[in-house]
Every structure is written in C-alpha cells, then in structure tokens.
Amino acid sequence: MPVSEGTALGTQLAAPAPETSFSSTVAARIDANIGFIYIDNPPVNALSHSVRSGLSAAVRTFSDAPGVQAIIVIGKGQTFPAGADIREFGRPIEEPALNAVNLSIEACRKPVIAAIHGTALGGGLEIALACHFRIALASARLGLPEVKLGVIPGAGGTQRLPRLIGIEQALRAIATSRILDAAEALQLGLVDAIVADDLHAHAIRFAQQVIAEGRPLRLVRDLQDKLAPASAGVFDEFESNLPARLRNRLAATRAIRSVRNAAALPFDEGLRKEREYVEECKASPQSAALQYVFFAERAAFKFDGYIAGALAGPEPLVGIAGAGALRTPLAAALLIGGCRVLLFDQNARALSDASSAIVERLERLSSKGRIASRQELQSFTAALEVTSEAASLRHCTAVIEVEPDTLSSKSAIVGALSAQVGEKTALITTTALLSVDEIAAASRRPANVVGMHFFIPASTMRQVEIVRADRSSNLAASIAVELSRRLEKIPVVSRDCDGFVGDRTLRAYLKEAIAILEEGVPAAHIDAALRDFGMAHGPFELCDFIGLDLAQRILDGRSGPGETGTKLIDLQRAGTPNGMPAHAGTSIPKILAAAIVERCLLAAAAEAKRLVAEGIVSRPSDVDIVWVNGLGFPEHCGGPLFWATQTTASVQR
Ligand code: 3H9
C-alpha cells in the first residue's frame, strides 16, 4: 500500500502527520518517533482480511522506517480487536493469515506495543501476545474465548499464553473461555501496565520509556520459566474436571492438548499442531452449531419494528409492582444492570420489607464477589427508590408487575397500573402461562402492555421470552428487549400463544417422552438417553426439577387439567416417593438411546416448525436459542431445529 506522497511514513515529520491508509480498515500515523497503527473496523474491530493485510503492511513499513523507534497497535472506536471475523470462518483463508501477521510483529526489531481497551479477545489478544509489550486500560477485558465458538485459538494463543501466565491459568482461560479483567491480567503478567485513562498518551509515555531505557524486546515465544506444570497429571486432571457443558466438546479437548504441546514441544512445532487442531475443529459439526448459536443470539435482539435506544437514558427508571417471588431477584438484577428501580407497594410495611430484601440480596452478591467493589454496591443500593404512591410510576420507562401468575391478579394490577403510568411507559406483565392478550385487555393502554416470561430459576437462566399481545406497540416490545440486555439475558420476541415458545415446544417433547414410557421403556432409560445426548436434565428429571405441578400445567396448557398432565401425575404416584421412577445412572443399548433422542427431539422440532409457520416467532433460530438458554439443550448441537436439519432424519410430522 503506497504511503502519502512526498513525506513517506518513516521520514522525519515535524508535526503529527495525517493518517495514511494501509487498507480500508487500517491507518497509520507517525507521532514524533513513534508509529501508530490504528485498527478501525466497527463494531468490534474483527480481524477481517482488510485488517490483516493493512496491519501486515503497516508493520512492514514502520519496520523499515528510519524515523520510527517504536510501534503502537491500537483499536479505534470501542475496542481493541475482539477476534477473528467469524463470518469468514466458512471460507478459505485469504492471505495473510493472522498467524503470519503475528510472526512478523514478533520478528520486528523495534518494540511493538499493544495498547488495549474494550475487549481484546481471540485473535485480538493473539496480536497483543505477539507484541513485545502490552498496556491496557483498567476497564479492558482480555481472553481467548474461541472454544465457545467450537474452535481453538489459531494464531499462537495456545502457545504464547501459557508462556506468559503459566500452564494452569492458560488452561482455565482457553479451555473454559474465561475472560480476565485488566487487574487480573496485570497480576498474572499478561499485561505490563494498566492505566486509568487516556490510553493514547500513556502508550506514548510507555513507548518513550522503552526506547529511553533501551529495553530488550520481550518475545513471548522465548519465555520458558512458567511452562513447568504444577504436576505431571495437571492436564488429565483438568480435562476430567471440565464443567458438564464442556464435556464432549472437541474444541475443549483440543485446547488442552495444544496447551500441553506448549510445555512439551518447541514453539514452532506447537504452533504447527495448533493450526492442525484449528482445522479439525473448524470442520466439526460442533463448531458450525456454536457459531450458529452465536449469531442467532445476536439476531434475537432485533425484530421487525425494533426501536434502538428505546430504553432512554444511561440509567433508566424501572418500576416494580406486586409481591411475587420474582420481585427481589429482578430488582437486584436491574440495579446491577445500571437501572434505577422504583419499588411500589401501597402497604408501607410490605414496601420496607421488600426494599430490605433487595438490599440484603445485593449484599449477599457482593460478599460472593459478584459485585466488584463496596463503592459499586453503594451505588446500586442508592439507585433503589420506594413509593406507595402509584402516581409516581408515571416517570418510569417501564413498570414490571410481579404478581402471582393468575389471570385475576394479573388483570387487576395491570388494569390499575395502566391508569397511572406515562403515555410511553412499557407495562410489563411477567407470566409463564397466561394469555398476554387477555391481560392487556384489562389495561387502559393495551399498546403499552407486553409480556416477559423468565425461565426457572430466573436469576440464573439466560433466556427470557418477550411476548407481544395483538396490540403491543413496537416501543413497548423494544423497551422489554433492551431491559433483557440490562438483565444479561437473551430475549426472544414472540406473539402470544399457549405456552409461548419454550413451553409449547417442551410440551411436545414431554408428551413424546411420556408416550415412550407408556410403550414400556423405563423413565430412567429415557432420562439417561437424553442426558447422554447432552441435555442438562432428562425429561422426567426436568419435571421433578421444576416441580410436578408446573410440569402438569405446562402439559395441560391454558385449557386446564387434561389427559397428559394427569398421566404425568399418575406416573409420579406409581414411582418413588420423591418423583419419577429412579433416575440413577443406567446404561442402555445405543440403538435404543438414539431412537429415544430422535423421537423426543423431532417432536420438539416439529412443534418449532409450526411456531415459525404460524408467525409466532420470526425465525427458526429463535426457537433454538430458547432451548439452548432456557431448556438445557447442549449448545454444541445448536437447538432442536438446527439439530434436526443436521441429522438425516426429516421433520415431516
Ligand atoms: C478467533 O478470534 C479465532 C482466532 O484464534 C484466529 C484464528 C486464526 N466476528 O455481541 P455484540 C458482531 S475466534 C464478526 O452484540 P457486545 C456481532 O455479530 C473469535 N462479527 O456486542 C454483532 O453484529 P450485529 C474470538 C462479530 O458489545 C456486533 O458485532 N472472539 C464478532 O454485546 C456487536 O456484537 C470472540 O469469540 C466477530 N468476532 O459484545 C468474541 N464479534 O450488530 C465474540 C462480534 O450485526 N464477540 N461481532 O448483530 C463477543 O464476545 C462480543 O461481540 C463482544 C461485544 C464482547 C466483543
């Protein structure tokens, strides 16, 4: 890439030169004796071909430029590169590959410094690892989360990270996709310095110091002292203790093997093996499923009519009314998500008790380390306000009712609140089973009413369903979607129907499991088959887990007690006193297990297809992520519809 006319980069420039483009996403500039390389590929500076080629050319140019004594690589916008461009994964790699770019950075004879802000993830962190020094903003986060996408770091991450932070820490970071904050990164030796603000200015100061001290270049490939594992069995032990969700994950096992190579093989040989594992993982159905889930989760935030920024202001005010069990966890999660919460109860005593329960919950979370500092805890508690005046709710962007889940109580509270809330306030009803259309009918502002269905247990399950009644406005639905983001949950927007997305497809799945049971297959076998497939619980275990009453209600639906729900209860009575007959581990013939899995999942997939055909959800992937995040479906199989399309079985039911 040619540089600007006359004053080629690398000649002495008196004043900061304008930036020179090396590709559509990489520009460079010389400031005094320092060469800056800017990566500018919004939104997350993903390392697409133009970034790799621009970066490679800029490094080459600065390496040869006599006036440049140090090079700083920095991201524009919100972040240092957050990884390879996942959209390029299915295609042949266009040169230069990231690995080659990193090798050229590492081989540069001038100090190359990574200045990190935002999220230095995957290939982004691998660039930083190839640099000779790293400085980071205190708010930065760093990690190698490739295993979450079904691959392993493929540009030296598995070889360089262990050399920098040690085998055990690297295993945790790579195999479990653990993200480190800047303070921990500093403590582990992953970064050389952290700064509170003005990364640009601090990076210049850091570079000048390196130049002035004549500091030797630190090539991570040459570091050896942290490579000795604590004990020889460390890798096997780590693998056998992987969390359940990572068992049977090809990428996790290959990541462990690759880190093991870092300790056992010369650097370049380890790098070559790393590349082999990446190709093996990329070709696996697991990585296709995990990448599908990644994009499906992001797509779920957008629906036809979505209004970005609906949750106005940095600290939106959210009202909570009603006395259901969801009140405390929901209020605490909203406060942690940066909302102000206005708790409403006409009874002063109840209000004070509810407020204390929320503060206690925040303190408990703080003592478990889930809230970063005392100061943060204080700011969350200060954002909790209480009122016994319903009229105060009119200032809220959203009011969420958390009454017990009966039509009479929901209709009563939504009716009463609708007389108080502002014209644009979203009025959110939390229901698992009721018709949001019927609840909205009790409201004076039906357009403002939208449903939210949290999965059990609400505080830990990542999924939430946003249920639009016939008259729900785009604004109300958009506010609910943005609240989900604050709650760190994945929303799926659906229209109102019996069971919404999750319970309706779950019903089909459970009915099939009951049918198999009636054909004489023991419950323990059915549970084992689906657990071995990767479900968090077998179908009957799930019924026990959520409670048989709720399971029966899911099976019966809005029409009330019916044949299948009653069957479930009868079967339970015939079983052990604690639930369905013996769930203990059991081995069954593979062919039977495969048939059980196929029948149950195809039943769910067929119902999912009907949901799409009826326009309850707008895309098939919405149903899949409800299963992955709400119903314990193994992420690396993508969800029942994705799984069904990947297997030879057809979904013609
Ligand atoms: C890798 O690096 C392999 C290497 O070892 C090299 C091998 C040779 N690519 O999540 P958001 C899009 S593997 C393409 O809503 P946030 C995303 O789809 C990679 N696109 O924002 C969305 O698009 P849209 C390792 C990407 O602020 C938009 O950016 N890295 C990528 O909540 C905003 O995303 C990772 O696994 C990407 N890599 O969270 C990190 N990343 O607006 C994956 C994001 O059209 N990314 N997009 O829907 C993340 O974890 C989050 O996106 C991040 C930002 C934390 C960065």
Outline the secondary-structure elements:
Layout (H helix, E strand, L loop, with lengths): L19 E4 L2 E6 L2 E6 L9 H16 L5 E6 L22 H10 L4 E5 L2 E3 L1 H8 L2 E5 L3 E3 L13 H9 L1 H9 L4 E2 H7 L4 E3 L3 H15 L20 H7 L9 H15 L2 H16 L2 H15 L17 E5 L5 H10 L3 E5 L3 H20 L6 H9 L1 E4 L10 E4 L5 H12 L7 E5 L5 H6 L7 E6 L8 E6 L5 H13 L3 E6 L6 H17 L4 H11 L5 H8 L1 H9 L6 H12 L15 H24 L6 H11 L9 H7 L7
Parallel strand pairs: 3-4, 4-5, 5-7, 6-8, 7-10, 11-12, 11-14, 12-13, 14-15, 15-16, 17-18
Antiparallel strand pairs: 1-2, 2-3, 8-9, 16-17
The chain binds (S)-3-Hydroxyhexanoyl-CoA.
| Averaged pLDDT | 92
Question: What oligomeric assembly is this protein in?
Answer: single chain
**Parts with pLDDT < 50 across at least 5 consecutive residues:** 1-14, 649-653
Helix count, DSSP H or I runs of 4 or more residues: 25
What are the distinct ligands in this entry? (S)-3-Hydroxyhexanoyl-CoA
Helix-strand category: alpha/beta
What is the end-to-end distance?
58 Å
Rg (C-alpha, Å) = 28 Å
Largest sheet, strands/sense/barrel? 8 strands, mixed
Number of strands: 18
Helix content: 40-55%
What is the strand arrangement across the widest sheet?
13-12-11-14-15-16-17-18
- Shape, please? globular
DSSP strand content:
5-15%
Structural write-up:
The protein has 653 residues and is α/β, with parallel strands linked by helices. Helix content is 45%, strand content 13%. The strands form 3 sheets. The protein has an 8-stranded mixed β-sheet, sandwiched between helices. Strands 1-2-3-4-5-7-10 form a 7-stranded mixed β-sheet, sandwiched between helices. It has a 3-stranded mixed β-sheet with strand order 6-8-9. Helix 4 (157-165) packs across helix 9 (250-264), helix 13 runs antiparallel to helix 14 (374-382) and helix 18 (502-518) packs antiparallel against helix 23. It is globular, with a radius of gyration of 28 Å. The model is unreliable at 1-14 and 649-653 (pLDDT under 50). Bound molecules: (S)-3-Hydroxyhexanoyl-CoA. Residues 43-44, 46, 82-87, 98, 119, 121-123, 126, 145-146, 149, 153-155, 157, 298 line the site of (S)-3-Hydroxyhexanoyl-CoA (3H9).
